[in-house]
Amino acid sequence: MTDVNSNPETGQEPSRRDFIYIAAIGATAVGGVFAIWPFIDQMNPAADTLAEATTELNIGQMDDGMEMTVMFRSRPHFVRKRAQSEIESARSVDVSSLPDRLARNANLDAGAPATDENRSALTAALDDGVSVDDGVRAAMLVTSANCTHLGCVPTEGAGDYGAWFCPCHGSHYDFAGRIRRGPAPENLPIPPMTFISATTLRLG
Amino acid sequence: MSGPSTYEPKSGFTRWLDTRLPIARLGWDSFVDFPTPRNLNYWYTFGGILTVCLMVQIVTGIVLAMHYVPHIDYAFDSVERIDRDVNFGWLLRNIHANGASMFFLAVYLHMFRGLYYGSYKAPRELLWILGVVIYLLMMAAAFLGYVLPWGQMSYWGAMVITNLFGALPLIGGPVTEWLWGGFSIGNATLNRFFSLHYLIPFIIAGVVGLHVWALHVPGNNNPTGLNVKTKNDTLPFHPYYTAKDGFAIVLFLLLFAFFVFYWPDALGHADNYIEANPLVTPAHIVPEWYLLPFYAILRAVPDKLGGVILMFGAIAVLFVLPWLDTSKVRSLRYRPLARWFFFFFVIACLGLGWAGQALPDNKVPVLGAIGMDFLLLGRLLTIYYFAYFLVILPVLGFIEKPTARPASIEDSVLGTGKKTDTGGTASSPPAAAPAE
After folding, report:
1. Contact at 8 Å (CB) between B114 and B195?
2. Domain spans of chain A?
3. Residue among A40, A42, A169, A181 with most chain B CBs within 10 A, to mutate
4. Whole-structure pTM value
5. Helices of type H across B172-236
6. Whether A169 is catalytic
7. Tens digit of pLDDT for each residue in B266-307?
8. Using the 8-state DSSP alphabet, how is residue A189 labeled?
9. CATH placement of domain A53-203
10. Is the CB of residue B199 less than 8 Å away from at least one CB of chain A?
11. Which domains does chain B have, with CATH numbers?
């Protein structure tokens, strides 16, 4: 069959029919990619999951050295009112010697150093008219309770630094929730915090 | 599936069918008159055993899905209900749960068989690669299935494995949330895991079809590694190998039944009878036994991303194995050096499993006296695992002197005693012509 659009001498010139083939295949490929996207995106968190949640904590009853684990945005978090000795042990460390030197604190800039002050509730916002004792703010530590290695919940009061030890693959954290030894790459992240009264801390 | 067909339809109906849908011809040529090397030993029965395993998992899985509820509030209770209240539910669940272990036991023996007799070498590279694809799909199906009972090991195993993807640079976080469908493992995760767990066995069945097809083009390898040269080298698949496979399947089912009826929880973990609790990680989490070697490799690296890369690399290396082994001789029967390295490789795999189930800081029995803990053991064996594929097999092909091989498959069985000369070097291979 003779293609009336091809060059009669060579038969090789791109013809208008070739152009239609290329255009049709191209449109199908692009359309195919668009059609696949809903099937991929449906697996991302749904709107109700994304709806931002907050958790309010009553810390007025906490004694020094007391810890509780709370759920915030479907993940466990450590809430610890640290004893004076624990704060001192965390403050005695030189930040430059840490495996992860960043504070990983949602209340601070991404580049803030991982000093104990930058990890504690001293960085929490204060609602208008609320005043909280500096000693309480310095003692309070709120961090994610999922090890930054593979997500296990570290055990309290264990490991080389006496604070948290992850039983799954052996990561040791100190009393500021900073990774000190083991496979975990980062310090335990700190969620956004606001004191809405002298004894109530809101996460999120 | 290849070569001239010997099928002759005998009745009017089969003649009518043969000109429209030659399915009887396909079955005859593939599983009745298929020419099979006459010297296959019992290591060659695991293909048939694995087919049985896949069918058992699919049938028990379909009926279990009639009673299971994929919701975080009901999943654990629905599995307990299957065990206690559903008619024969205890039996079906024990078959399905132990069936996964039996499946992996058979696939590991099948794979070691292929490694020993050089079944991955030309012209069977694609056959081997399709097998590794099936193995990967099996691991995915087993992992997803282990999450469904929603016990503590289910939950924390899923947490660890999904977090592996968080090690990827830049896209790690979004990919992990995409897998979870939330900010952590939750109901969305359980739902999709159930959906995919139901899907994957059918994909496996499809790839098994390709695997059998790729087997039937070059035909079976055999313990001598020699090519089939004459009709005297082969026997028809039926009745010789249907009977041999059938006997092996019966023996295998005896072992299977022993676990199902007398020791159903031996291969599981007691912590999985505690309902999932996002606040408490069990003191010692381990995967199922068949994934322990990879867990040991993951832990052998002190870096998160490095450990993940090495763990996936342990499987990726299998895909390129046909091009890493430089020896022209297939079967390790005639490779005196490679055989020893292979036996150490088997021991290394078992040792990695041993290291995978232990706490990394615990001392190894006996060797602990010289300061060997399980972390160090895992590291040494990880090095050997990769060295076997990346250094030993490539180098041995050049320096090893193979021993004398029989003149033919027929000769190796009927023993006329003729031998080929040793060839002097590995560069005088058995004829590389296709099997037929």
Report:
1. no
2. 1-44, 53-203
3. A169
4. 0.86
5. 172-180, 187-216
6. yes
7. 999 999 999 999 988 888 888 999 999 999 999 888 788 888
8. P
9. 2.102.10.10
10. no
11. 24-287 (1.20.810.10), 291-324+336-401 (no CATH)
